[in-house]
From TrEMBL:
Protein name in the entry: Peptidylprolyl isomerase
Entry annotated with the keyword rRNA-binding: no
InterPro entries: PPIase_dom_sf (IPR046357), PPIase_PpiC (IPR000297), PrsA_foldase (IPR050245)
Signal sequence, renumbered to the chain: 1-19
GO MF terms, alphabetically ordered: peptidyl-prolyl cis-trans isomerase activity
Keywords: Isomerase, Rotamase, Signal
Gene3D superfamilies the record matches: 3.10.50.40
Record has Flavoprotein as a keyword: no
Domain PpiC residues, every copy: 125-227
Pfam families: Rotamase_3 (PF13616)
Amino acid sequence: MKFYALISAMLLSGSIAFAQNDPTVMTINGKPVTRSEFEYSYNKNNSNGVIDKKTVKEYVDLFVNYKLKVLAALDAKVDTLSSFKKEFETYRDQQVRPSFITSDDVEKEARKIYKETQERIDGAGGMVKPAHILILLNQKATPAEQNAAKAKADSIYKVLSRGADFAEMAKKYSDDKGTAQKGGELPWITRGQTVKAFEDAAYSMKVGKLHAPVLSEFGYHIIKLNGKQNFFPYDSLKNDIYRFIDARGIREKIIDEKLDSLVKNEQSSSAKETLLEKKAEELSAKDSDLKYLIQEYHDGLLLYEISNRLVWDKAAKDEQGLASYFAKNKKKYKWEQPRFKGIAYHVKNEADIKAVKKSVKGKPFVEWAEILRNTFNKDSVIRIRVEKGIFKQGDHALVDKMVFHKDTTVQAVKDYPFDATFGKVLKKGPEDYTDVKALVVADYQDQLEKDWVATLRKKYPVFVDEKVLDTVNKH
């Protein structure tokens, strides 16, 4: 009994010590929020680069509102949606998958790639390092041009055979300008990297020797072999191979193979998902930053979906609500100067000036563009050019001249010599919310969110421990 009591006391003292190290800073609907979680969120959103930095006290309301919305999403069972699960698990797995691969795994793969390449190259004769002087010859060259190129190549070869400096001759005579300034030097090459005639000649040579002019698709090559060896040592290529592994996504392939190996004896189709979930829990228990990062993404997805349902998308589609909000807050959208709500247009035939006005008169403004398109520009002949909108002075030269009677120059539209406007001047402000829809939608969203948060505050109890809050980032 004494033994079990002692163990219990030790466990209890450990849990108390842990709680003291990471005390609860607040409870939301009875669920505790640790100081470390709050600090993670606060510090991430109030780093040095943030313009509108908040104090800890100022951040509390933002954090609480965020958590309340997440609670609302959970109550609405957003986390049970297959679309939510798929997106969250994809992100979580991105954080977890790298833990299944070790440096030994990557090294093993790198050596495998090296060995396969080494065997292929050395089995085909290793590598050669040639230099060449190219006498360019067009494939459609005339017989006379072919003879001239051959004679020039032979002449250079004879001079080289008598001891002339190859690099100097390359700089002077080679038509391969990319290598000429390097004395004709090419990098180490392997079989299959160059045209066959050049390759066969280079691989047949001894180091330091010259080869008589060789004809390829490009012209005549006079070749000198500067080196011949087997494939490079592993250590000299290790960094390049690692970069190749990263660029080709081979790490992901290794991870997939390891995961498949771990779950191959399982009969469940969800074995891999279960393994990844357990690994996420294991890593999160050791790394609080990872834990909160995954939780942040989880909660962020919930927040987006529930906010879209109840605020963003709802406001954008609620025509009746937008109209009602506008009617109650019309003074808020009053303009400092009159606006012209209508069209500025240009027509080929003068008779169309009246025809345009007649076609849209009495019709809803939002339908004007479609009416004009179907009436005047439906076939291949474009009869009118139209700019539709709500214009203030300075927005449009034709509107300035014909509506606001300003002395301004209107640039003529080619092939459309007749200009006109049609619409109305709004002196006091917009007629309805569609005239300032973007502003009204944004304000209506703000109002919906405020009302929603107020409802959540009443529904879910919130308690903040001010004493613990005062220790944030100070312990």
